[in-house]
Structure formats: C-alpha cells, structure tokens
Amino acid sequence: MTSTSEGDSPDERPLPDWFRTPPGGWTADDMDLLPPEAPRMELIDGTLVLLTPQTRFHSRAKARTAHRLQGFLPAGVEVLVSMTMKLGKYQRPEPDVLVYRDRGDDDRQSSTHIPAEDVLLVVEIVSEESRERDRTTKPMKYAAAGIPHFWRIEPEETGPAIHVYELDGAEQPRYVPTVIARERLKLDVPFTIDIDVKALTGRRSGRQQ
C-alpha cells in the first residue's frame, strides 16, 4: 500500500498502483493479476466491487448451506464457497456458494475460477450492502450465462428463507421462482436435496443432516 505523508487524512491518501484502472477497463483476467495484499473483490460490468465483512447470519448460512449440500452431491459434482466465475470479459462475480461439475482436468494449484458452463447452482445470501446485487444484478448475469439453478437466502424475523429459481429457456434467459422455503427445502433438481432451512442459521442443538 502506498505510504502517506504526515498530516494526510485517509481520504487524501493516494490510491495504490494496483487499484488504478488498466487501459480499456478491468476485465475478468485482470483479477488474477491483483497482488496478494488486495482486498477480496468481484467484477460486475467491468467495475471492481469490494466485498465487505460478513455478518454472523451471512457466514453461518454460507458455511452450513455448503455443508448440507455436500451430503447430497452425486458423483462428479462438487461444492465451493466464495469462488469466482468468469461469465464474460467484464463479469467475474463471486457467489457465496456454487455447485459445479468437477471434470477433473483443471490445474488445482492455480485455478482461480469455475467456468460458467460447469456451474449447476449458485447461492447468494442477502446482506444489507449487497441487497440490490443479490436480488437483481447478479441473477441477471447468472441467467444470461445459462446457469440452470439459483437460490437466494434472505434473513427474516423468524429465520432464513430460501427463494428457489430455475432457468427459463426462453430467447432471453431469465429465472422463474419455484418455491420459497422457511422450514424445510425438498427438491429433485439439480439433484435430490432435503435441507432443514431453520438449521442454516439457528443455534446448533445436536447433529443434523
């Protein structure tokens, strides 16, 4: 990080060199060139979006959703948290949870993203600062990329609610809602799933599926 002179306020500090927009704007490939000290960011429409600290609700829902899904995955399918996807030259979002086909041909030491064509399901957990992106902007990008299943987990007074969507194969791809689950989520697609929704963020009372 670039040093500041005595008396500089935080707002007057010069930007680090790595933060300056490259010629032609930011691309998905540019994300791999950021230095280790750069904060976690995603790329939406060529704009870097800083990922802010997570709430306990967000962190619990992400970890437990991935854990629950892990128990239902068929052979050749894997789940990851906070992994980016390249959806185009100027799109590299980072969903909270993604489920994808593991083709076994990636370089596991250097691969930093999942190809959109391998993704079966993306999950976004809504927080105050990401509400608009999670409800509108990112689902539009995911649908345009042909990702067949999308979940949005919303915090409510009584606990989490999972909003489930499937891709409509129209000329202009879009997600259509199929169910909102607040107690238990049972699905047959993209594979058989049975999740206790309240357990995703509630206090643990013992071993659960």
Helix content: 10-25%
Our Rg estimate from Cα atoms comes to: 19 Å
Mean pLDDT: 89
Oligomer: single chain
The largest beta-sheet arranges its strands as: 3-5-7-8-9-10
Q: What's the helix count?
A: 2
Structural class, judged by helices and strands? Answer: alpha+beta
Largest sheet: 6 strands, mixed
How much strand content do the residues show? 25-35%
- According to DSSP, the number of beta strands is 12
Give the distance, in angstroms, between the N- and C-terminal Cα atoms: 45 Å
- Described by the principal axes of the CA atoms, the overall outline is globular
Low-confidence stretches: 1-5
**SSE pattern, N- to C-terminal:** EEHEEEEEHEEEEE
Characterization of the model:
The chain has 209 residues and is an alpha+beta fold. Helix content is 14%, strand content 31%. It has a six-stranded mixed sheet. A hairpin with a 2-residue loop joins strand 8 and strand 9 (159-168). The radius of gyration is 19 Å and the shape is globular.
Keywords:
209 residues, alpha+beta, 6-stranded mixed β-sheet, two-stranded antiparallel ribbon, 12 strands, 14% helix, globular, disordered N terminus
Provide a brief overview of the structure.
The chain is α+β, with helices and mostly antiparallel strands.
Q: How is the topology of this model organized?
A:
Elements: E1 41-44, E2 47-50, H1 56-70, E3 77-81, E4 84-86, E5 97-101, E6 113-115, E7 119-125, H2 131-144, E8 149-156, E9 159-168, E10 174-181, E11 184-187, E12 193-196
